[in-house]
Amino acid sequence: MRRTRLYAVVVGTALVASTALAAGPIGAAVASGPSGGQTAGAPPVRPGAPKVPVMTGGGGAVSSVDDVATQVGINVLRKGGNAADAAVAAAATLGVTEPYSSGIGGGGFLVYYNAGTGRVQTIDGREAAPSSFTPTTFTSPDGKALDFATIVSSGLSVGVPGTPALWNEATRRWGTQRLSTLLEPAEEVARRGFVVDATFNQQTADNAARFAKFPETARVFLPGGKAPDVGSVFRNPDLARAYRELSTNGVKSLYQGPLGAAVVDTARHPATAAGVSVYPGQITRADLARYEAPVKAPTHTTYRGLDVYGMPVPSSGGITVGESLNLLESYDQRTGTSLSKVSGTQYLHRFAEASATAFADRNRWIGDVKRVPATELLSQGFADERACQLFDSATAHARPIPFGQPDGSYSCGSTVAAQLPPRDDHGTTNLTVADRWGNVASYTLTIEQTGGSGITVPGYGFLLNNELTDFNFTPTAAGVPDPNLPDASKRPRSSMAPTIVLDSGKPVLALGSPGGATIITTVAQVLTGYLDRHQDIVDAIAAARLSSRNGPTTDAEPAIVNGPDGAALTAMGHHLKSVPEIGAATAIRLFGNGLFEAAAETTRRGGGSAQVVNPGR
Ligand code: GLU
User: Do 395 and 48 contact (CB within 8 A), yes or no?
Assistant: First the structure.
């Protein structure tokens, strides 16, 4: 099963020739105008290499959706930094070039393999609710849920940002360089600008009406009143100032200092355009002061003899990916035919049944609460019971699939009750890094929706998250406890699923994706495409995706819906809904001999950027 074929090296001479990030000298202190946008000034930062979705070679690897961020990570590795250093530097850069999906105002999760100890650990940089929150914060006095879209673009959705604390913890614990050094490239990209691509232009245009409600956001992200053109240069000197503040005064500026005061003031009193009023936020400086990004043990399951490590609570990512994989192994046992040998249609059918079942259990049992039955949800006994109750290789089980009882006693007994899945939304980015010493980082970061709350911190050029809308506003089923209701200082349940796979104690694969709840199915599908369907990792990423999350319909990309698999799945009872794109994965494969294969999307979100330090070697 472990393939050794090296994928063709795809590299332009520019990368080999250039170690510089930028067209101009790094550190050239040329100020741009006072506001963001297409101000004339220093030459923009350009990556030194063409944007390609796959590259093989030595010295370390970085994969992200963005070529400038990938180049920054590669530069850090090339200069002797390790995977933690490169992950932080590249993530900070994504905060500039992907400001609608990540940044200082958001949160995320890092899974890290430390080659020195041979251990996988995680950092929880999830945003936290204010201490004033209660289970009814998002309901009106009659018990009905408040309007979701209204809450998204308001101060009330803003949680305490976790990203700076995660960077600090990762750097302190595993890094070799100062955080201030690692923030320098991002500051420079913010100051000198980057060239706008179609995705940035489209994401801005999609948010234009929302951004226009907040004059500061419009000033920074809608220069001249509209989305920056493709090919123009976008500068954000305010964001450069925010990075400088973090570099000079440390992340305590956000948790105990002036940056934090600005965040709190902005969330509590968002400045709006004439005639617009929004819910005020509730976060306080005390909430920021008590915030921590704790180090946590990863989730673990075995799949095909490999060890799969993921993100624990408050993310549901690790547990739900793990249960899906366990269910697929149970289906092999029940049918006597392994996933690697079945037809393409049967593969997608099994995959859909597994993810829908795992989502039924996720929705009932996982949240930032005490006593999440994580070990039981990840046990093969539980998966075997669920497969026995529910799986039919010829017919899709009716949705919603009932949740199971992860109580340690397994037979094929009855299930409890079905819950409809909660809603979910998308605005995230993923980053994968490996270094020459064998350290590996898989890091997913977000501000929740694309564009977050739509509220920009005045003078600092970054958007505040709307992560608190990841809570369920009301219980998803009457009479059934809901672990994901809002509460004081609680972290909303996430689907983010940065993942690292080990073979006999050595890392062989790291991956992750954005995409809200479809993150879970995307990561599981890439894993099974690679491990079971014999696809190269870049092909497993490019393969058409399907996402069944226990709702009445199953999302599928057009290549599935409009092809023979779509017709066959429909005949089996799957209600497919065509969606243009699911997820935007990045991955790194480690060969164990100093060689790496970095891989990203070929076309989704405009294609990702995969690089290695020494192409071909
Ligand atoms: N807020 C989502 C989560 O934590 C992520 C959104 C996205 O991936 O686009 O699950």
Answer: no
DSSP one-letter string for 536-556: -HHHHHHS--EE--SSSSEEE
pLDDT of 416 reads 61
What is the average pLDDT across 143-162?
97
Distance from the alpha carbon of residue 450 to the mean position of ligand 1, in angstroms: 9
Query: In this structure, what token pair is assigned to residue 63?
Result: 């994969």
582 pLDDT exceeds 90? yes
Cβ distance 429 to 94 under 8 Å?
Answer: yes
Q: What is the pLDDT of residues 441-454, one digit of tens each?
A: 999 999 999 999 99
Alpha-carbon distance 72 to 474, whole Å? 43
Which DSSP letter does residue 160 get?
Answer: B
528 is catalytic: no
Please write down the HEC assignment for all residues of 243-270.
HHHHHHHCCHHHHHCHHHHHHHHHHHCC
| Ligand 1 atom 1 nearest Cα | 448
Confidence at residue 49, expressed as pLDDT on a 0 to 100 scale: 86
Looking up tokens 């199953």 gives: 554
H runs (alpha helix) in 336-414? 344-365, 374-377, 380-390
Residues 6+ apart with CB under 8 A from 351: 324, 328, 521, 524, 525, 528, 546, 548
Query: d(Cα 320, Cα 520) in Å, to the nearest integer?
Result: 7
Determine the residue type at 140.
S
Q: Which residues pair with 590 in a beta bridge?
A: 596
CB of 434 within 8 A of CB of 452?
no
Confidence of residue 439 (pLDDT cuts 50, 70, 90): very high
Cα–Cα distance for residue pair 519/425, rounded to 1 Å: 11
pLDDT of residue 428: 79
pTM, full prediction:
0.94
**Catalytic entry in 204, 299, 357, 428:** 428
For 431, the enclosing helix (H) or strand (E) is strand 428-435
pLDDT digits (tens, 9 = 90+) for 332-383: 999 999 999 999 999 999 999 999 999 999 999 999 999 999 999 999 999 9
- Answer whether 312's CB lies under 8 Å from 252's CB: no
Query: What pLDDT is attached to residue 476?
Result: 87
Query: 446 in ligand 1 pocket by Cβ < 6 Å?
Result: yes
Contact 410, 389 (CB under 8 A): no
Task: Provide mean pLDDT across the span 420-448.
Answer: 88
Give the pLDDT confidence score for residue 5 in this predicted structure. Answer: 32
70 lines ligand 1 (CB under 6 A): no
